[in-house]
Structure to design on (631 residues):
């Protein structure tokens, strides 16, 4: 139930007493304001209040219905002509009270069993079930027991049984259809959390809550929605006054107002309009006005009136339910569309990752094979350089000996020495061999860097010195750092601290260094264009790489450039797949996304970006020393 509570003692009986008072008051008000000259009430609000109370507070509130019904009918049906009439009328009144209580409990039971009360009006089938299991079942039981009791008491003849039964049944049906939805929705709008509902178990507490609600309403700003609602209510009252107050029969104009209320507002506002329209129709008809009043034919007038009320209620509730179902379907479609879009995006990202991984794998195999093939002739050259240098030194020594012991060479030899600048060659040959040795050593380092960068064994975590990976990446990118043509050299500043060897996937981490350093180089392109010689160090393009130990269990690698920086609206998206600020065809938008996945997901580390517009960008990589460490 919406607000069912199990209460005992004073709290329970205070609720029962309050319901009895409400039942009696609404019955008396209904008879005083909307009774025909024959004391027939076309609308019976108390049954709507009773069913709402049971649905909200539980079956233990049932005695309040019986008590309220007994005293409400005591006033109308008690006969005091003699003692026998008093006894029989009391028994009849008691039977009516029992019938009302049984009908209400039956309706509540059927609704709980076949519908549930959490979303009673959000589906068309639920609205239909509310009408049949709730309103009709209660009205049938109450009308059957009530009319039978009055017939046995002799209040009317058996031949009028059917007419009285229909009027009684439709009166109760209208009361439930109008007031039960309104009360349930009013209660739900005030108390949003069903487990915290306290409907008058503590009268003073409730009174303070009502005061708070009234104060909030008074302090609430009159927004356009509230103004629109007030205008709609005024329009309904005005049209209802014309239709049921002796003017033109324009009751059909109230239907668009209900549709307006359903489309523009919540169901509570729509049920409020139902209460206003039904009250106007009832008050007008019992006073002899409106399209449903037929002189000298009370039963027909009541049937027309009650039929109009039922049509108004059902049209509003079913229209609202249809809109709710459509909105629910649209929400589900929206969620599914979002999930599908996410799935497609993830699929594209995964596909791109696979392609990138395959490219890196192929590149690694190619580079590894190339390094292997280059390594053999380089080893041959570097290995024979020392022998060649020794042989040439021997020949030079021999030449020097000839110059010592045979200083007067013949004319032809002397011309050859002068023509070929033998003395110059003797001085330069050691320098040539030294340059060849340096070049050979550089080729060795390049091959080693290629080999380290293109580690193909990614399936296993390896214990590595992270500085080797950085140096290998820088060696490969060396040609992009140097000056050439009209471009400045990029100043490279390295501040390496002593780091422990860490467990990582070597090729993946090298790929991260490659992606970040490549981005930094590309960002610095505008600063590299030669304009005027500048001695300002801050204006020259540079990249700073710093490493540190963080909290003993982690290391940090900071890569900082002094480029143009990244704006705040972009920096929040740089790790998104396929996001790039480069022109079409210049970038895939996957480099930083893959780097983030490698650092965060694969290595359980952190990758953050800090940037200041026109000052530069810093990427901070934090990696655990062991893969067991967690942030």
């Amino acid at each position: 139930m919406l607000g069912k509570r199990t209460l005992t003692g004073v709290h329970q009986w205070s609720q029962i007493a309050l319901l009895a008072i409400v039942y009696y008051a609404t019955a008396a008000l209904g008879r005083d304001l909307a009774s025909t000259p024959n004391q027939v009430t076309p609308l019976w609000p108390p049954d709507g209040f009773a069913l709402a109370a049971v649905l909200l507070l539980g079956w233990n509130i049932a005695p309040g219905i019986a008590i309220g019904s007994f005293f409400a009918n005591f006033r109308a049906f008690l006969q005091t002509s003699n003692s026998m009439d008093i006894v029989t009328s009391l028994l009849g009144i008691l039977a009516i009270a029992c019938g009302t209580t049984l009908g209400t409990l039956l309706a509540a039971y059927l609704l709980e069993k076949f519908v549930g009360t959490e979303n009673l009006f959000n589906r068309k089938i639920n609205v239909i079930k509310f009408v049949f299991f709730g309103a009709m079942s209660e009205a049938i039981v109450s009308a059957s027991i009530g009319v039978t009791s009055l017939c046995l008491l002799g209040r009317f003849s058996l031949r009028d049984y059917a007419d009285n039964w229909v009027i009684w049944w439709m009166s109760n049906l209208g009361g439930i259809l109008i007031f039960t939805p309104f009360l349930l929705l009013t209660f739900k709008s005030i108390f949003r959390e069903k487990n915290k509902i306290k409907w008058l178990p503590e009268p003073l507490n409730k009174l303070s809550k009502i005061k708070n609600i009234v104060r909030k309403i008074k302090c609430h700003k009159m927004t356009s929605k509230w103004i629109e609602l007030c205008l709609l209510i005024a329009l309904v009252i005005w049209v209802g006054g014309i239709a049921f107050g002796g003017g033109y029969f324009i009751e059909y104009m109230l239907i668009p107002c209900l549709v307006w209320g359903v489309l523009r507002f919540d169901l509570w506002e729509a049920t409020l309009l139902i209460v206003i329209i039904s009250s106007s129709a009832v008050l007008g008809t019992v006073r002899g006005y409106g399209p449903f009043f037929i002189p000298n034919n009370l039963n027909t007038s009541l049937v027309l009136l009650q039929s109009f009320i039922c049509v108004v209620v059902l049209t509003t509730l079913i229209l609202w339910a249809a809109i709710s179902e459509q909105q629910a379907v649209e929400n589900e479609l929206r969620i599914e569309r979002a999930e599908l879009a996410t799935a497609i995006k993830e699929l594209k990202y995964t596909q791109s990752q696979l392609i990138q991984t395959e490219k890196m794998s192929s590149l690694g195999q190619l580079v590894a094979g190339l390094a292997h093939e280059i390594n053999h002739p380089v080893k041959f050259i570097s290995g024979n350089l020392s022998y060649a240098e020794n042989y040439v030194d021997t020949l030079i020594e021999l030449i020097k000996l000839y110059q010592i012991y045979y200083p007067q060479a013949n004319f032809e030899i002397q011309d050859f020495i002068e023509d070929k600048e033998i003395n110059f060659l003797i001085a330069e040959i050691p320098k040539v061999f030294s340059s060849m040795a340096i070049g050979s050593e550089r080729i060795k380092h390049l091959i080693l860097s290629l080999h380290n960068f293109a580690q193909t064994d990614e399936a296993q975590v390896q214990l590595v010195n992270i500085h080797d990976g950085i140096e290998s990446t820088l060696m490969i990118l060396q040609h992009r750092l140097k000056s050439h043509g009209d471009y400045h050299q990029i100043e490279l500043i390295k501040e390496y601290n002593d780091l422990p060897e860490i467990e990582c996937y070597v090729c993946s981490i090298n790929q991260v260094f490659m992606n970040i350093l490549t981005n930094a180089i590309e960002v610095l392109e505008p600063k590299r264009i030669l304009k005027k010689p500048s001695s300002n160090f801050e204006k020259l393009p540079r990249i700073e790489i710093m490493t540190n130990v963080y909290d003993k269990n982690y290391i940090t690698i900071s890569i900082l450039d002094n480029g143009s920086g990244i704006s705040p609206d972009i920096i929040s998206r740089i790790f998104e797949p396929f996001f790039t600020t480069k022109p079409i065809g210049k970038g895939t938008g996957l480099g930083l996304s893959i780097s983030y996945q490698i650092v965060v997901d694969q290595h359980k580390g952190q990758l953050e970006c800090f940037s200041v517009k026109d000052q530069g960008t810093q990427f901070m990589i934090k990696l655990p020393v062991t893969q067991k460490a967690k942030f």
